[in-house]
Write a structure and sequence with these properties.
Length: about 375
């Protein structure tokens, strides 16, 4: 497997639990790459986590999640005050569904628990080769190789597996960017903003600027949940966790400019909201600088069916869905786990099992992903 994001690790846990050997190669270090601090998990994600994770790990993930997110609020500035001007219920049939926020670093720590020795960090995949006997040889930047029955690309938007498997599947850059950050809840507690928005996903309009907000109040303190469910887990993501406000600032490439370290991105975000409501300025001013990251917004147009084989892809490697893509990745992982288990039991041959997974993924995930973007050079 290539990639140790939520989809890849969910699949690795599911295969391990079914007695199937798995090795995960991740090009980044053990801390992973900056991708924002929170993740909205809905029924698709929770179903996958409950099915693929050992019970204690699934229980800890759910125990530490935030409160139910049932609506999307629209907040505007009226006479110097922020007020709710609209509320749209989230639908179980929509692309973005009711769910609960989870702390991404904490979820990663939970997903890695029990996979010691199975995840190789700093291992950059370069290419694969399918042998005559159907086995897959994966090559890595350091000259090493790995051979297995199946190669799964869970390596996200820049997937090297997808580039070889589906060379015509290209990422289209929308030209839009999203600066994401997080601010300790204690720093903005006196603004009234946390009480105004509750657990809901919120879009605040101030002048011509939009800021997306979400409050994560841990359902159970992570340290207490760790002591109850996974006492052997040692992670800074658990020890240092505290309630916070997640914020996201949509910007263009031009507004973002040339950025470098997270601190520089944070400084740019402060400039972009400098003329806005004091509560919004405080949210950005008091953010943790090292958690502030710029994300590129793009899509992968739906790919025509391809012949099934021992190489496949899940999640953002094949369908990008900003805001809810983690749920599709974990659902892919769950379904691919089931397919590979059927093949391991001899209920289906491997190509048929993988083909069935891919057919379902194309049918259900491709229509859920936005397709209209501004095509840029």
């Amino acid at each position: 497997m290539i990639g140790a994001g939520p989809g890849g690790l969910t699949l690795a846990q599911g295969l391990r639990g079914a007695g199937i050997d798995v090795v995960v190669h991740e090009r980044d270090g053990e801390r992973g790459r900056p991708q924002g601090v929170s993740l909205h998990v809905d029924d698709r994600g929770w179903t996958a986590l409950r099915a693929c994770l050992p019970p204690a790990q699934a229980a800890m993930a759910e125990a530490t999640a935030g409160g139910p997110r049932l609506r999307t609020l629209s907040v505007d500035e009226r006479d110097g005050e922020l007020v709710i001007v609209g509320a749209e219920p989230l639908s179980d049939a929509g692309p973005v569904r009711p769910g609960r926020q989870v702390h991404r670093p904490l979820l990663r720590a939970v997903l890695l628990a029990g996979l010691e020795g199975a995840v190789q960090f700093g291992s950059a995949f370069t290419e694969y080769e399918v042998a005559a006997d159907g086995h897959v040889l994966a090559r890595f930047a350091d000259g090493s190789t790995e051979t297995g029955d199946v190669l799964v690309g869970a390596d996200g938007i820049g997937s090297a597996v997808r580039r070889q498997l589906l060379p015509d599947a290209r990422v289209i850059d929308s030209g839009r960017r999203m600066v994401m950050g997080a601010t300790p809840l204690r720093a903005v507690a006196d603004t009234g903003l946390p009480e105004l928005i509750g657990h809901n996903a919120t879009a605040v309009r101030a002048g011509d600027t939009f800021v997306a907000l979400g409050v994560l109040r841990f359902g159970e303190p992570p340290v207490a949940a760790r002591d109850r469910w996974l006492p052997g887990l040692r992670s800074a993501a658990v020890d240092a966790a505290e309630d916070y406000v997640m914020w996201a600032l949509p910007v263009t490439r031009e507004q973002l400019g040339s950025t470098g370290a997270p601190e520089a991105v944070w400084s740019r975000a402060r400039v972009l909201v400098a003329a806005q409501h004091p509560a919004l300025r405080l949210v950005v001013d008091e953010a943790w600088p090292d958690t502030t990251v710029p994300l590129r917004i793009g899509v992968i147009p739906a790919v025509p069916p391809w012949p099934p084989g021992p190489v496949t892809v899940i999640g953002d490697a094949v369908h990008l869905a900003p805001g809810f893509g983690g749920n599709l990745a974990m659902r892919d992982a769950h379904r691919l786990r089931d397919a590979l288990v059927r093949a391991a039991r001899g209920e289906q041959d491997l190509a048929t099992a993988i083909g069935a997974y891919e057919d379902t993924m194309r049918r259900e995930s491709f229509p859920a992903v936005p397709r209209t973007v501004e095509r840029t050079a």
